[in-house]
Amino acid sequence: MVTSKVTVYFPYPVVQVWQTVTDLAHTVWRSDLARVEVLDETHFVEYTKSGYATNFTVTACEPFRRWAFTMENDNMFGSWEGIFEAAEGGTRLTCTEIVHAKHWWMHPFVPGYLKRQQKRYLDDLRKELWK
Question: Which SUPFAM superfamilies match (predicted)?
Fold first, then answer.
């Protein structure tokens, strides 16, 4: 199991950050994704640009405060939680991701992969909010 927690500040209102992060119908800003398929209120599937699918189940949705879900694909399972807080003219977002590799040989690669993924996601989010 690998846990990665990162806190970032965005100079935008919490409502704007929340809406951007949770709007699964508008994910073109995500440079790692080809598309997102919404199955119902709590289930969705993300497809990478190479077509790899990851299944998600929303476990908490407290508007403008907390969004959390579990995730699973052929290589891993885990969870993600985002805590949204208003902070001095903007928003503080704390993302905590926990990942379990399904294959023993993947364990050494998970920490680096997770850090790169989180950085990419937050860089993409920063660019989208700046528009």
Answer: Bet v1-like (SSF55961)
